[in-house]
Amino acid sequence: METSSPRMTAGPREAQVNCSPAVAANAEGEEIEVLESTDVLPVAPEDQWKSLFDKYDPENSGFISTDRFRDLLAAHGSELDPHKLEVLLALTNGNADGKICYQDFVNLMSNKRSNSFRRAILQGSRQLKGCSLRDEVGLGLSQRLVRHVAYETLPREVDRKWYFDSYTYCPPPLLILAITIAEVAVFMYYGLQLERLVLQVSSPSFLKSPLPYHPQLRAQAWRYLSYSFMHTGIEHLSLNMAMQLLVGVPLEMVHGALRIGLVYVCGVLAGSLAVSVTDMTAPVVGSSGGVYALVSAHLANVVMNWSGMKCQFKLFRMAMALVCMSVEFGRAVWLRFYPPAFPPCPNPSFVAHLGGVVVGLTLGVVVLQNYEQRLQEQSLFWIFFCVYTLFVLCAVFWNIFAYSLLDVRLPPPP
What we know:
single chain, 414 residues, two-stranded antiparallel ribbon, two-stranded antiparallel sheet, 15 helices, 4 strands, elongated
């Protein structure tokens, strides 16, 4: 009498690990059944890549040749994003030793941009096959926006394609927008309170807010950052807001809120500390320290990678950015030496602009140099960050001791 045994199938983990036909048996071991399996690309943790790697490394050497790696990509390339496939092919063509080790294989097939990946791309051929990202057609509005941002901020086609495939609008670029909205809200509040939208600084009550930095109130530490939400008038706010949105939002889309927030906050803090050291009797208002840090870092990145930057009208756009910065800085210098509305307190200082520029040209440039490399992996970042930290500490001690030692005559508190 013929009996039928229950059929047992391999689970998803076993099906992915085993590239050979899966074997199923009944509980009594009376009958085995060979199940056909498809040779699919594993998508789970590292140990599940081992079987696929072993197929192309029959000698168990821990390495596969670039020729075999090309065969692997040819077999499984349809399961990868097309731009990432081009990047992997570029890595294969540029690998100097002709071999790829197991860990590199795992990182690459997991779409991780490891240090070895970056080194191979930099040392190997940067020419990718196929059309450039700009030539692709049939893209939706959001995809065209991401492509535009990629060409505005990234100098290499390999990075632009990687960014285009990886960006998901999650999280959305809300940091710069939130800062701008807060600045507008604060400006409108004080505009209604002071009944003045232009040259608010000429109002006797302007500096009585808890936000601006004032040398007599420098012990209130929050003022070294909160001053960025106050502006001297609608002309001051408009210029800063325009540069902040046009440059800051695309940079945040590429580099993320953490990096851009770091550059922005460092620029704001450096601006107020620079004023407290070099223009000791002047107050400070405005977000120019953070804005100038972002804009100067972006412009420096464009200049250093001029041939690779493919943004439209880049010379005209750079000239317009410099004109806006010059106009805003010139307005700040004029206002600083204009007769103050309530002597003996001078008008707000312009030195915060210069502090932001220095941060942008040092720390900011390093942050923007390699958009996908983690900051803790960049030695130059740590050098500039330590220098910045040393400056902050020196400025703090300066504020504690220098005013009394130099017998500086400060204006009365607001």
